[in-house]
Amino acid sequence: MYHYRECGLRNVWLANGFDEHETPYGPGIAIHDLEGLHRAIAHGIVNKGGKLTGAELRFLRQEMSLSQAKLATMLGNEAQTVALWEKRGGQPKIADRFIRAIYRELNEGNAHIRDMIERLVDSDLEESDARITLEQDSGGWKVAA
Q1: Span 47-94, pLDDT tens digits
Q2: How far is residue 58's CA from residue 8's CA, in Å, rounded to a whole number?
Q3: How far apart are CA 125 and CA 118, in angstroms?
Q4: pLDDT surpassing 70 at residue 108
Q5: φ and ψ of 105, to 5 deg
């Protein structure tokens, strides 16, 4: 068994899928299919019960190639808030759920959550008092095109 701490998590152990070898600096480890390993770790994190720890949140964010600032913007927070969650944990339940959903969408490709969130972020930047024009037809009231 190899305790795989290099991913930033304390609870990851590998039963196989690695080779031990000697280096000029001492014993070394070569991981087979590192990308696949990280996908499997993320899958385990997303599907586990309980809230994400700070380290798990950081791992998922990095696997999605998101900066703290980008994730914060998607969640309607500040980058320092995400940094604090990663350091101490304790993110709100809704943020925990969104982060898991965004990762699942990225990994499974069966939803468009990230696109929807980015459209909402873009709409936050638009004028808040913009006119909403409605029209009624046989199907009821709708926002006019």
Answers
A1: 888 899 999 999 999 999 999 999 999 888 999 999 999 999 889 999
A2: 8
A3: 11
A4: yes
A5: -65, -45
Sign of CA dihedral 54, 60, 63, 64: negative
Question: What letter does residue 76 receive in the DSSP assignment?
Answer: T
The H or E element spanning position 123 is: helix 113-125
Identify whether the C-beta of residue 98 lies closer than 8 Å to the C-beta of residue 117: yes
Distance of CA 86 to the CA centre of its chain: 12
Q: 60, 52 in Cβ contact below 8 A?
A: yes
Contact 18, 32 (CB under 8 A): yes
- 3-state SS, residue 24: coil
| Nearest alpha carbon to residue 29 among 21, 40, 37 | 21
Pairing type for strands 18-23 and 26-31 reads antiparallel
pTM: 0.76
Which phi and psi (to 5°) does residue 137 adopt?
-135, -165
